[in-house]
Amino acid sequence: MAAKQSGSRWVWITLFLIIGSFAAFVFFLDARIDKVETPTPAATTEKKNDKPRIDFYSILPDRKVDIPMSEEDQQAIKNPSINKLADEEIVLQVGSFQSTADADSRKAQLAFLGLEANVKSAVVNGDTWYRVMLGPYGANSELSRTQNLLLENKIEYMRRSATP
User: Fold this and answer.
1) CB atoms < 10 A from the CB of 148, how many?
2) CA distance 124 to 136
3) What is the pLDDT along the chain (164 residues), one digit of tens a residue?
4) Which entry of 19, 63, 90, 120 is 20 to 30 Å from 50 by CA?
């Protein structure tokens, strides 16, 4: 019977140690929470007032920025002959091939995109090259639309003047 009481005594001692340790831990945490100072609402409002308040919606519309013109732009306004590139017709070269089959293949590819291409032959260093050309374009909007279409379809092009 003494062995049975001795075993239950150790169970009670272990149980009291565990409960005591838990209570001490909770008391320690409670003491740490009390040490942390919570900022008072008055101190918080003072810090907010120290920062400058910027309201972009009211500031930006009131501001106007003048961008100075470059010398080239000023010269183009004074002398309209410099601005002749805007009136010039442009063609786009979308390929240059040594065989007519390759040139016709590129022309067909462009036809599927809704573009009408021309194939022109040129002799360079004794070799005949077949150039696939689009244009001429006078209006910048049509030229821009065609260039965007070529870029979307990953077709390289070279912008050239329509006049030789």
Assistant:
1) 10
2) 23
3) 555 666 788 999 999 999 999 999 988 887 777 666 566 665 555 555 666 677 766 666 666 667 777 777 777 677 655 445 556 789 999 999 999 999 999 999 999 999 999 999 999 999 999 999 998 988 788 888 999 999 999 999 999 988 76
4) 63
Same domain, 98 and 45: no
Q: Which of 87, 83, 106 is nearest to 157 (CA)?
A: 106
Give the whole-angstrom CA distance, residue 143 versus residue 91. Answer: 9
Q: Any idea what the CATH number is for the domain that residue 129 is in? A: 3.30.70.1070
Residues 96 and 42 in one domain: no
Q: E strand or H helix at 39, and its extent? A: none
Amino acid at 132: V
Give the structural domain span for 113: 89-161
Q: How far apart are CA 113 and CA 111, in angstroms?
A: 5
What distance, in Å, lies between the first and last C-alpha atoms of the chain? 121
Phi/psi at 5 (nearest 5 deg)? -70, -35
Tokens of 17: 């140690």
Instruction: Give the position of tokens 């009291």.
Output: 16
